[in-house]
Structures
1.
Amino acid sequence: MHELVLSTGEPLNLYHTLSCGQAFRWAYDKSWWTGVVGDRVIRCRQDGCHLFYTGTTEAEILDYFAIDLDLPKILASIEKDRLIADAILRCRGLRILRQPADECLFSYILATCSNIPMIKRRIALLAACAGKEIVTPDGAYHAFPTAEAIAAMDEDCLRGCKLGYRAAYIKETAEIIAANPGWAGRIASLSTDEARDVLQEFRGIGPKAADCILLFAFARYDAFPVDVWIRRIMLRHYLHENEVRSFSPSEYDRIRHFARGYFGPYAGYAQEYLYCIRADEPSLPTCRGPSSADRRPVPR
DNA sequence: CTCCAGGAGAGGG
DNA sequence: CCCTCTCATGGA
């Protein structure tokens, strides 16, 4: 059992950090979080500024949770209005992780058009099927499969993981990654915009997944992923527009560029805090239903 | 049954 | 640029 004492300048909230939907391999049970990162099973528990953990080193904890970043300064820089201020108040200590690049890439190929419990289940099945077994005193776990292991999976095994149409995408990407182990280094050397374009050359990676990967694995905090929840929040609270039916690529870019200009270079942090309070938004936006009194007419 | 969920690809106007 | 269809899955 190791212990890390956080200073007041290094706020961390394990709950918000590990349950906000950026990483999919953590589970909470009886005040302990257990997760698989790389080929390690990490357990951790927080008691105020005391962080207890097993299964890894202090250096890796500091890196994974990005404890070196000045979170109060980042949060101050994005606190531009009452809505984001409220999100910061309620989710303070949420930190954007530095995830292993391969895991993050594959995870967000599998994340399209799903909810978080389904994504976690999908990845757990994939790991059980093709990931290296990790035996701990508390039970056996499976590492996230390597690109080689995914590329080698047969059709039956892939189908058993319930990946749906995503199976072909992840397999094709795994073959490319396995043949190009330096892919992450190349991405890291590019500008955010260039890296974004290169990531979208993988089949199954579009604008949203590319932004998630840049934010959660490459520390590009200016990346601003726009999913259906963030779109709803941004249109309602910032752009004052009705939600029309289709979500076009140009609308994605409009939201993304507004957010980058409004929140600044840590817009990705603002995104994650807004995502964290997404359940507060009415599920039906203003434009649905003929009885919505305050909607503006939408030209068709 | 319909609708939705951390979308993306393909095709057509 | 725009739109629509389709992909596969499970929960509500």
2.
Amino acid sequence: MLHSHNDPPAAVEAGGLSRYSEQKRRQILQAAFRLFLRHGFEATTMDAIAREADVSKATVYAHAKNKQELFAGIVAGRAALIYGSVELQGAESAAPEDALSRFARHFIQLILSPEAQGIYRLVVAEAPRNPELGRIFFEQGPRAVTQRLAAILEAQVRTGHLNVDDPLAAAQEFLGMLHGKFHLPCVLGVAGQPPVEELERAAERVVRTFLKVYGSMR
Amino acid sequence: MLHSHNDPPAAVEAGGLSRYSEQKRRQILQAAFRLFLRHGFEATTMDAIAREADVSKATVYAHAKNKQELFAGIVAGRAALIYGSVELQGAESAAPEDALSRFARHFIQLILSPEAQGIYRLVVAEAPRNPELGRIFFEQGPRAVTQRLAAILEAQVRTGHLNVDDPLAAAQEFLGMLHGKFHLPCVLGVAGQPPVEELERAAERVVRTFLKVYGSMR
DNA sequence: GTCTATATGAAGATAGAC
DNA sequence: GTCTATCTTCATATAGAC
């Protein structure tokens, strides 16, 4: 069996982990994530992860207690990263059309990105057998985004730019509409990745619809 | 190993299948569906299906070519059944508030039913490795419902009760909003099954929001 | 920490008797 | 069609050397 030559572990450094180990750790996490995305949790084997990461299986087990923990750690971590990236700078002070537009464009591209779709599939599939994973994903992902949007809406209400009775409910309507046209067909592989212009058009339409309901200057 | 006593197959009847065989077929399909819902595709074994159906594994293979086909057949069949049940009688002629209300209440209870949620998880999880399954589910399920709703909206536009520019887009907005508050948390197991009254309130809110945008008498 | 080698158990699928 | 028994492959996880 081929594998790269192995230097002996370097001396342990400040953090308590050798450089060597850190690199293997990254290899393992990346390989595992790639394979989980491609084959799902059950169909991904520890053998395949070791092969893809170019380490031995025993090394994989040295870095992760078992397959479950490897999986949950990776997926939760990536989900938080991705959903945390929704850009909201200055959204409270901008004109509502602009704030909502920017938010909508970011969000729709986020949820249609291949990585976000892959994570969505994994979490939806495994949540019943791994409730903690479902909880972490939901709270750090969709729920966090919803709450941030609700906060923006509330700020816009205070400045008189919007007229929203229930910011949380309105935020859920807004995000629901943004899923509308593309999310499910893409997740199911029925539609390919839509071109950016089409996404922007869809986002703009949702913003216009939303402002017809909650815009305060009509 | 325990199993029920086996009578020899009864004489073949009109349809070409013995009663005996039809019963085992039902046992197998039901058992497989239960297990797929509970454990997902990969983690469900043919051994377990045979055990749960109280037949031998060879009998399972006599009724289904392999695990893939057993799975796809069951899931697609149940999905079509469930989504086909959305009640739309007379929706074109009723007042738009009533038509949309009835539709919304049915739809939101449909997508939150345990069986629909289970199928959703299975299809989302396996669609990348089984594109045909994703396509069939989408077309017979969500897409069919969306188109029926769009047709209702169009009829309401013709009678002057609604003012919708793009019935398909509006239908997608409506259905997206109906997913909004409950669908994801329930699919992820973060929230339990909400009580019916709460679902009705949520449905009513969406209808009101929708009519603020597309109602023609304001 | 990292490797090779292996223990242990199941998986999907089929053979062959009835 | 249905069973029991089995083939073959491969899974998760660990032991033991370095």
